[in-house]
Amino acid sequence: MKAKSGVRQQKAQETRRRILDAALRLFTAHGYDGTTIDSIAREAEVAVQTVYFNFGNKPTILKELVDVRVAGDDEPVPTLERRWVREAVAAESPQAQLRHQVTGARQIYERVGELLEVLRNAAVSNEDVAPLWERNKRQRLEVQQYLVKALADKHPLPGSLTPDRAADIGYGLLGPEMYHLLVTERGWTSQQWADWVHSALCHHLVGGS
């Protein structure tokens, strides 16, 4: 009985992943508004009702995609407990901490940068999606505030720079908007973006390059 239950659970998880993978392909190719539940079902090769049963509606699919792809897995581990954050906090020098932060952001955007741009664009005109983008922004700022505190414990912030302003600098330079502008639009490699952001963060938050 347990074996049958395990097989059913595995099949259900595989179906969810197939729907999410299909939605990701369509969202990034046609945008949020250009993608329908019907088209997701066709792409995933499942019944339309299967999509509704698993997710309920399109905003929920987008939310699930962002949550899973940003994390890199579907484990219920909060961002502040993720490995890259723990390594950043544990780093001995502020420069090393900032390198961990940049590397973590680069890995996230390589996985999910296009999807975050879909989310950002959809939030402009879709009231069902706007809260998802606001939630994403709020979470990113909270992460930066947490990491600035860890940074200040290693090295005093330069000059009259306040923790709030320091978090704002990290929030801006490490944001998906900057990544999209330089990597997607201007053709930088993700490593070039990472090196430039690290240098800028060191200059502004530590006082050196």
TrEMBL record:
Give the matching InterPro entries: Homeodomain-like_sf, HTH-type_TetR-like_transc_reg, HTH_TetR
Q: Which Pfam family would be a valid example here?
A: TetR_N
In the record, what terms sit under GO molecular function?
Answer: DNA-binding transcription factor activity; transcription cis-regulatory region binding
List keywords of the entry alphabetically.
DNA-binding
List the PROSITE patterns hit by this protein, alphabetically: HTH_TETR_2
Q: Does the keyword DNA-binding apply?
A: yes
Q: Which residues bind DNA?
A: 36-55
This protein's name: TetR/AcrR family transcriptional regulator
